[in-house]
Amino acid sequence: MEHYNMNLTLKVWRQKNKNDQGRFETLQAKNISSEMSFLEMFDVVNEELINEGKEPIAFDHDCREGICGMCSMHINGRAHGPWDGTTTCQLHMRAFKDGDTITVEPWRAGAFPVIKDLTVDRSAFDRIIEAGGYISVNTGNAQDANCLPVDKNKADLAFAAAACIGCGACVAACKNSSAMLFVSAKVSQLALLPQGQPEKQSRALNMVAQMDKEGFGSCTNTGACEAECPKEISLTNIARLNREFIGAGFSSEK
Amino acid sequence: MFDAKIPAGPLNSKWEDYKGHCKLVNPANKRNLEVIIIGTGLAGASAAASLGELGYKVKAFCFQDSPRRAHSIAAQGGINAAKNYQNDGDSVFRLFYDTVKGGDYRAREANVHRLAEVSGNIIDQCVAQGVPFAREYGGLLSNRSFGGTQVQRTFYAAGQTGQQLLLGAYSALERQVALGNVKMYNRHEMLDIVKIDGKARGIIARNLITGELERHFGHAVLICSGGYGNVFYLSTNAMGSNVTAAWKATKNGAYFANPCFTQIHPTCIPVSGDHQSKLTLMSESLRNDGRIWVPKKQNDTRKASDIPEEERDYYLERRYPAFGNLVPRDVASRAAKERCDAGYGVGTSKQAVYLDFAAAIERYGNIEVGKRQLSNVSKEEIIKLGKEVVAEKYGNLFDMYAKITGENPYELPMRIYPAVHYTMGGLWVDYELGTTVPGLYSLGEANFSDHGANRLGASALMQGLADGYFVIPYTVGNYLADEIRTKAIPTDHPAFVEAENKVRETINKFINIKGTKSVDFFHKKLGKIMWDKCGMARNEKGLKEAIEEIKALRAEFWKDVRVPGEANEFNPELEKAGRVADFLELGELMCIDALNRRESCGGHFREESQTDEGEAKRDDENFSYVSAWEYKGDGQYELHKEPLEFVECKPTQRSYK
């Protein structure tokens, strides 16, 4: 692979805290190697800002291998940037060329208030899980793991839904800031497995109610969430959630 | 206070016996007992969920924005359990034996046996929570094999086993949050332990968003904060992984055990330049099918594809014909370093070796031809069929490699090099997972207990969950049963005030140094010293130099570091400064420990202690002990030795030839 260096212009969202209005700041990133990851490019820029006595750009990141879901940059109008099925930390500078201007914003959604610069508060997701994203089983109550066979196809589908990393790109990509892909992935994972059956109705109802309470928008089946999801969670999960939700409405005994 | 508290009696009945006799706390009293948990990875989240279910008042802390982000999530390969679902001769004893042997006879037998005993329950628990493990067509769970074992006992969820297990523990934890049994403190970092009358009674934590310092009381404190691999700057750990919680415990009297035992994983993507911020692992499972080689000629600049078969050196197959490419991690890592140091490395940096799938692709292609009963098949078609099989097995890893390097591993061999991955050392704990400070416990990678000098693949997840789900609920109860008369201590107690003042002083010091160099500058320098002199190979001269260099670097750090921003705001640079300050102390202790251990064992290779063929040589006569270090003031440590006794596993020199 041919390596090259480039100079870039960054337009980065700066916001001191949640009460600050915020603005774009234009910065130069010089001598950036095509082998760097996008976040390593930010490291270089931040190092320079510190050396100049300025405040570095605050952004969320942790594992830097695409699995923790912490990184969350809206790059040139796309959640996690130009590569499909890729988190910001796995995006590499080969995606850009010398002289490019790159606009970087935080996730934009009312339910994800900005903490500082590119860092947002996603605790709404935890509260949605608290509303029912689990199977009610205490430690030590489990039967032997193989006593209940699970259809392999369903297990595979449950795994595909469970691959969600909770990054919030689906919300950021959605024009309505809907969290339906996130909610549906958890509802699907558990509804597809026999262990999740007993609570499947209350789970769907409670998680959707919490989602609404947090201020996420409605789903209009545009599909931007699926297109931007770094784990390529399928839109069919939303169909499954709708089925569970409507089914619960008709047949719930409560 | 230096008693491992190993129950008497035969090895296989110790844990049953302990559970039958430990003290219990009645439900009404549990509601008044508070437990603080630091870290929400597999160990912390499972402990928080289980203790919450029991009815204790739990407060859990993590520095990330959600407990679901903890670095357990990045574990790829799998989790071991002695289920013997494959009927291939596995048993609790074999898992126990493999783990002690794999740890090069530097782990405590009683702890490891308990780990093997509860391993099966972990799988049951996770399946009940809805963890989607890989399954066979009959609907039963699937297993695969991992390094250092001869049975198939590894359960997995594609290459995302850690993620699925952590999300299982996370949902159990969030369920307890909803029920009001656990209070979760996200974006909080523990910055000190509060001790009252010699017992751990609480912590000082910083709210990372507002910068506020908070005092939290607990009848017991559990440190579940993971490993300290980031002392090397470059490692497979997450950027935020740190030793701070464990180090504050050390400075408050908890002993730190075997700090020099570091696992260097052989198959990681090599460093590409000075900008590198972290390294990425390629799962050990790849060594099932990949062949590792370098050119036979030094400084060979030809492309891999231009080097003919007879000019390639498959050095693992050459040196270790019995195990070949599947030797344990420590052996494979050292062999790669040896070739690169001798000038046979590949790639632009020359610090890499090839991991080649060409042979596997052809082999799988031929199998497919047979399976499908095809005839007159061209070489290209065979390769195409083979690539499909390899993609099914390792697709996500190949994709990850391609994203990072920009090279297609189906066409070109992968370039790999060893990287720091896991730390076997950690807080010294007794059989009950208690440190030397009463009321202070440590679980998971943060403690030292189960992996000796080298951890086997797929055992870290097992240990984290064993400690959290199945061990601590019993052992912490045994302590708390005597605490039912202790009322919650108000946090205006002088010990809390003093601890908070100390933390505030340190934070103000960071902000006020106003030096000229960033925190990362010092972290990178420390990492280089550690990697060069306390990395894959260590010797007396290098370690002594490293100790002096670290001391000097630490002094420079406290004079010249620049931490921008304020203390009372969201300030990631300030967070980093605190963590690096602790690494600058721990790094020195690691070198002191490595210097003291004049033998080679597991991941610890002292150049002075090797066989004529360059293999690691253990010295059981002089070093069959756990090194437990007591902090005695800046740069001063006192060594306490816990002798290791082997009743069931008699130590032998490991050989893979």
Please tell me about this protein's structure:
Chain A: GO terms for molecular function: 2 iron, 2 sulfur cluster binding; electron transfer activity. The complex is a heterodimer of chains A (254) and B (657). Chain A has 254 residues and is α+β, with helices and mostly antiparallel strands. Chain A is built from eight helices and seven strands; from the N terminus they run ββαβββββααααααα. Chain A has a five-stranded mixed sheet. The longest helix of chain A has 16 residues, at 236-251. By secondary structure, chain B is of the alpha+beta class. Among the domains of chain B are: 266-419, Succinate dehydrogenase/fumarate reductase flavoprotein, catalytic domain (Flavocytochrome C3, Chain A, domain 1); 497-619, Up-down Bundle (Methane Monooxygenase Hydroxylase, Chain G, domain 1), CATH 1.20.58.100. Chain B has a five-stranded parallel sheet, sandwiched between helices. In chain B, strands 11-15-14-12-13 form a five-stranded antiparallel sheet. In chain B, strands 16-10-18-19 form a four-stranded antiparallel sheet. The model of chain B has no long low-confidence stretch (mean pLDDT 95). Classes of the chains: A alpha+beta (254), B alpha+beta (657). Chains A and B meet through helix 1, helix 2 and helix 3 of A and helix 3, helix 5, helix 6, helix 11 and helix 12 of B.
Structural class of chain A: alpha+beta
Question: With helices defined by DSSP (H or I, 4 residues minimum), what is the helix count of chain B?
Answer: 17
Low confidence ranges of chain A: none
CATH architecture of the domain at 266-419 in chain B: Alpha-Beta Complex
SSE ordering of chain A? EEHEEEEEHHHHHHH
Question: Which overall shape of chain B is indicated by the principal axes computed on the Cα atoms?
Answer: globular
Strand content of chain B: 5-15%
Average of the residue pLDDT scores of chain B: 95
Q: Give me the side-by-side strand order of the main sheet of chain B.
A: 5-2-1-9-17
How widely separated are the two ends of chain A? 61 Å
The count of β-strands of chain A is 7
Under CATH, the homologous superfamily of the domain at 266-419 in chain B reads: Succinate dehydrogenase/fumarate reductase flavoprotein, catalytic domain
Strand order of the largest sheet of chain A: 2-1-5-3-4
Oligomerization category of the chains in this entry:
heterodimer
